[in-house]
UniProtKB/TrEMBL annotation:
Protein name: Glycosyltransferase
Signal sequence, renumbered to the chain: none
A Pfam family: Glycos_transf_1
InterPro entries per the UniProt record, alphabetical: Glyco_trans_1
Taxonomic lineage: Bacteria, Pseudomonadati, Pseudomonadota, Gammaproteobacteria, Chromatiales
GO BP: any one term: carbohydrate derivative metabolic process
Chain ranges of the Glycosyl transferase family domain: 225-295
The keyword Transport appears for this protein: no
Gene Ontology terms for molecular function: glycosyltransferase activity
UniProt KW keywords: Transferase
Keyword Transferase in record: yes
Species for this entry: Thiocystis violascens (strain ATCC 17096 / DSM 198 / 6111)
Length: 347
């Protein structure tokens, strides 16, 4: 029995894909047989160091012809998954396929009959691709092939339990690399944020503060498409991080910034509510532009006078993040889940 984690072939940094690689590494380190499954032959994420075992979905012309003929002569159009670089030539019904939530209603149509686990890293993408027509209710979450669901936040757990009352999803705690995202007191008067999120929102917030002359002495550093190491370095040296997510399953960037001791101001985006606590951050409800601007201004205009207090606040935030979202906790959560899944499968 092997566990295959289907992962998108992204060429840009993605926290969700990084988690998939880490889960495969954790399982292999604990005696399981696990692989990342990519579609593009030869693909491997290069924006972080890894030697994670990878296999590939065979999508050669020969296989595509096979699937077309199979669909033509059979009432079962479900696609088999043939493999390249794996110990077997295809996914067997004794294996387990782990699918991200982003595959939506198609989850139930992939390799029908093969046991599956849904790895949901953003509950707000659960219904992406679904029709809103009342008579169309494809629901892979309660399909017989689904043997378990993993979710990465308290917010996501509440979401799935409300939507699917008979479902018993398991929550796992994401981990933050304490060596990479480490607390630092050596802060620059610098505000960093991810450039690919909240473009309209950050444009409003920063221009409000510019008009009010409340950014004096602070440099603005948006970032996108850089390595984990460079992100961590930027967060360690930045006094402030802006959280710009809209609807997040967890929200790794603000958590990582808090681990580095940055003062995080901005949207908790749902998933971040559990760690963006008011005692050591400035959480804002999504869409409250004025509240965001006022909170940020409160920090920038008092930073010099209260610098030591802000450094202590950053230290408390870092301590909370690194103790709650530790590799040990993530590993324990995963092992408990997978031992349960495999135990039920064996009976």
């Amino acid at each position: 029995m092997a566990i295959y984690f289907l992962a998108p072939d992204y060429t840009f940094p993605s926290g969700g894909v990084r988690v998939i690689y880490r889960h495969v590494d954790i399982l292999n380190a604990n005696g399981f047989e696990a692989y990342v499954l990519h579609r593009q032959l030869g693909h491997r994420c290069t924006w972080f160091e890894n030697d994670t075992p990878i296999v590939y979905w065979d999508s050669s012309i020969k296989r595509r012809i096979y699937h077309k003929l199979k669909k033509y002569v059979s009432n079962n159009p479900a696609r088999k998954i043939f493999l390249v670089g794996a110990p077997t030539s295809k996914l067997e019904d004794t294996d387990i396929l782990v699918l991200p939530e982003i595959y939506g209603p198609e989850i139930k149509s992939i390799a029908v009959g093969v046991p599956k686990v849904i790895l949901n890293q953003n509950c707000y993408l659960t219904f992406r691709g679904y029709s809103i027509k009342k008579d169309r209710l494809p629901n892979p979450y309660t399909h017989p092939d689904i043997k378990g669901v993993l979710i990465n936040s308290e917010d996501g757990l509440d979401y799935l339990k409300y939507v699917f009352p008979t479902l018993e999803p398991a929550r796992f705690r994401l981990s933050i690399d304490k060596h990479l995202f480490a607390y630092s007191r050596a802060k620059k008067r610098q505000i960093c944020y991810t450039a690919r999120k909240g473009e309209q929102e950050v444009q409003q917030v920063l221009n409000i503060l510019k008009v009010r002359d409340s950014l004096s002495g602070f440099s603005l550093v948006p970032f996108s498409g850089i390595s984990q190491e460079k992100v961590a370095q930027l967060m360690r040296e930045s006094a402030i991080f802006l959280s710009l997510g809209q609807y997040e399953g967890f929200g790794l960037p603000p958590a990582e910034a808090m681990a580095c001791g940055s003062i995080v101001v901005g949207f908790h985006a749902g998933g971040g509510r559990e760690f963006m606590k008011p005692e050591f951050s400035f959480p804002i409800e999504y869409g409250d532009i004025l509240g965001f601007a006022q909170a940020l201004e409160g920090v920038t205009t008092t930073y010099d006078a209260r610098q030591e207090q802000y450094l202590e606040m950053g230290q408390r935030a870092s301590d909370f993040i690194l103790s709650t979202y530790s590799p040990e906790n993530e590993e324990a959560d995963l092992l408990a889940f997978w031992k349960g899944i495999l135990g039920r499968a064996s009976t």
